[in-house]
Amino acid sequence: MLPKVCILRTDGTNCDAETFYAFNKAGGKSELVHINQLRQGKVKLAAYHILVIPGGFSYGDDISAGKILAAEMTSFLKEQLAEFWRAKKPILGICNGFQVLVRTGLLPTGKLGSISAALTANKSGRFECRWIKLKIEKNNCIFTQGLDNKVIYLPVAHGEGNFYTDSATLNNIEANGQVTFRYVDKNDQPTKTYPDNPNGSLNAIAGLSDPSGYILGLMPHPERFTEIFHEPNWRRNNLLFCQPGRLTYNSMEPQGLAIFRNAIQYVKNS
User: Fold this and answer.
1) 230 counts as catalytic
2) Total structural domains in the chain?
3) Is 221 a catalytic residue?
4) Which of 176, 179, 219, 266 has the fewest CB atoms nearer than 10 Å to its CB?
């Protein structure tokens, strides 16, 4: 049986088709599920093995990015979400989905309704839409197993990706090894300097997990690099991982795919 993946949609979601494709290519069985289907009880989260909140601009990012969808989820789906997490089922939030998970409290602490961080406006004061370099940190996140210390190349597309929290929470995140992705410079060193860091995030944080490792949120878009031809220079190079200080093109596997494959493999092994 193929692992069932719930791709959560609402007004303003616009990366659902790409995420659907990515999980299916990785060996899952994706379904597009509107938030109203869950609110009305027509669909239950318990029927799925993986929950994904894809990118976009849910409800036009009115008030602030991801806030309205997060309020819906914590108001109407709180028990279902809590049960999903207790069952150790993977939850992924990409870009707007990351913003939503932070607004629900699932990131960074895994505590629903307890907001301890924010993704604020980019320090550049503009929407950033381009490809950037990321380093994958060593941690217990199920989505990044086997990818430790790799430097990869993924696109970003956001106006509010600046990760911010208080010093105590930031220290806990670092001490617990929850950082999964960091923005890096040309020497593959974590950086807060623009343009290598597109938003100014604290500690160059581009993505993080909860303490359990079952929940992942990241600002870059791995679903937009699941085919070689998604990469701008695909006709010239076959890009997999970046080596220190340079890009090395030595494999036919696109860099975003492993994140989805890891989630699928985790479910199959559970």
Assistant:
1) no
2) 1
3) yes
4) 176
**Residue 13 DSSP code:** B
In this predicted structure, what is the pLDDT of residue 237? Answer: 58
Q: At what angle do helices 257-269 and 16-25 cross, to 10 degrees?
A: 60
pLDDT beyond 80 at 27: yes
Residues written for the chain: 270
Q: What's residue 234's pLDDT?
A: 74
| Residue tagged active-site, from 128, 137, 160, 231 | 231
Domain extent for 26 = 4-269
**Whether the Cβ atoms of residue 262 and residue 144 lie closer than 8 Å to each other:** yes
CA distances to 106, 112, 130 from 224, rounded to whole Å, are 24, 29, 11
Decide if pLDDT at 240 tops 50: no
231 is catalytic: yes
Residue type, 240: L
- Contact, 69 vs 100, CB < 8 A? yes
- Give the Cα separation of 57 and 241 in Å (integer): 29
- CA 191 to chain CA mean position, Å: 19
Q: Quick one: 192 exposed, middle or buried, by C-beta within 10 A (0-12, 13-18, 19+)? A: middle
% residues pLDDT > 90 (the chain): 89
Of 18, 72, 128, 223, the catalytic one is 223
Q: Which residue among 95, 128, 141, 158 is the active-site one? A: 95
State yes or no: is 95 an active-site residue.
Answer: yes
Mean pLDDT of 135-159: 96
Percent with pLDDT over 70 in the chain: 93
CB atoms closer than 10 angstroms to residue 6: 25
Given a contact cutoff of 8 angstroms between Cβ atoms, the answer to whether 44 and 37 are in contact is: no
Catalytic residue among 49, 158, 221, 230: 221
Q: Residues 50-64: what's their mean pLDDT? A: 95
State the average pLDDT over residues 238-258. Answer: 61
Radius of gyration of the chain (CA): 17
